[in-house]
Every structure is written in C-alpha cells, then in structure tokens.
Amino acid sequence: MVTYANVNGLRIGYDLIGDSGRTWVLTLGGRFTRQTPGLPELARALAAQGDRVLLWDRPNTGESDVCLAGPSEPRMQADTLAALLTELDLGPAVLAGATVGSHVSLLTAAHHPEVVAGLSLWWISGGVMGLMILANVYYTPAITAAWTTGMEAVAALPDWAPLLDQNERNRSHVLEQDRETFLATMQQWMAAYCPRPGEQVPGLPDELARAITAPALVFRGGASDPFHPRATSEALAGLLPNARLVEPPWGDREYLDRQAERESAGGLFVRWPLLATAMREWAGETLA
C-alpha cells in the first residue's frame, strides 16, 4: 500500500521507516525511485538504532506526480521536500542525499532552514563534465522528442513512460502540455546545470552555501570519479561553515566499479548501507 501526501498541489509517494527518534530523509538523483536497491537498506540500517527515515519519490520520479514548473528541477524538488516535511510534521530532519539528491538537500537547507537539522552528503555531482552530462541525460531526450515530434513522443521516452503508465494524472498532465511552454521549461532546467563561477552546486551560489549553518557530514569524492569529483566535495566542505569532511567507507573507484557491475551486482547503490555507521556516529556527536 502506497502512502501519499498532498503538498504544493502535488501527490507525493513516501514511506516512513521507524516511528520515533531522529528523522532522516534520503534523497536520490536521476529518475531513481525510493525503492531503488540500496536505498531501503540504508534506511533500515539508520532506523535500526531507534531513528526514523523518510523515503520519498521526488516529483517526476516513481509514484509521485509530475511537476513541470519552477526555476530548476532540483529547486522545485527542494521546495516540495520542505512542504512534505512540514505536512508530515517531521522537521527539522537530517537531509541525506547523493548525486543530484545532494543538490536537493542543499537547496532545501538554503531556502527552508527551519526544516533542516543537518546534512549528510556523498557522490556530490559537480565539475564541468559532470554537470554537462547531467544536463544532457536529464533533458536532451525530452527536448528533442518534443521539438521534432510532439508530446506523445515525450510520453514514450524510457525516463517518462514509467511515470505515466502507473499514474493517469501524470499522463494527462504531460500530454496536455503546450509544446512551446514545455520546451521553454526543459531548456531553462537544462541551463540551470551550466557551471558558473561562484557556484560549486548549480543554483546554490557560494555565498548562500556559506550561510547554511546546519551541521554537515561530507563524504569525500573519489579522485577517479569524473561525475562526482573529489574537488567538488572538498570545495563544498570548505564553504559550509559547520561541515566535517570524511573518507567514505569504500575505495576510490566505488562509483566506477558499481557502474561497471550494476547489472551483475544489483545496482549502483547496493553498498550504501556501509555509510550508516559513520552517519549515526556523526549525528550522535554533532546533533542535539
């Protein structure tokens, strides 16, 4: 049975693991859902010591509604997360995120500090190549399909079809979009990933990052990882005034190895439960 909350005019699918103690929120990037292998296992590992964990499908993923509004997709998702925590009376919470989920968590902390007790971040997307690849993966197929064919072609894309097949409201919302408006939104969202001076994280100017006072645990990126560069994790930890930079519980090539073995080993995130011990110890030492 799926549990839903209605926030900002959207229906958001979520799970709550555990019923008391410190609240954690786990946020992925990509179009990955809250049931992606590795994420529920990390949630259960965090909840095993008496905490509770919110797993949620961001708008445009999983069992949540499609939303095609906002200055950028991560900012729209950050605003939704803040509203969800308020609706469920779960804040302030520790926001834990990876890949673009780290961006969503940071933007939530920057714009909605009242719902944030702390941050735990790893595999932080960044760098010129990493951000340009993200912009291409997220938006080029949809822009091309809409531009050359129409909204029916967008609805048939592998990233979009699962969202629409299980939710007729999503299908209607996409198919009824004005094509020119959709193209303008997708190109605006794509441009939001362009690397800019003074922004380690897209949409989060460095001066705004320096104003985030919540304690943060930042796991250092791998030197071999061009998508989540070590330099981005180190620079971000230097910007956040209450950050602790630590080594992750795996080797330098973790992301690349999981990419190479994703079919045989169960996916990209199957070893994320290894993070739980460091996350719980940091929270116990740092958070009230």
Automatic annotation (TrEMBL):
- UniProt xrefs under SUPFAM superfamilies: alpha/beta-Hydrolases
* InterPro entries, per database record: AB_hydrolase_fold
The record's annotation in Gene3D superfamilies points to: alpha/beta hydrolase
* Top-rank taxon, per record: Bacteria
The protein in question is named Alpha/beta hydrolase
Q: What organism does this protein naturally occur in?
A: Parafrankia soli
The taxonomic lineage of its organism, from the top, reads:
Bacteria, Bacillati, Actinomycetota, Actinomycetes, Frankiales
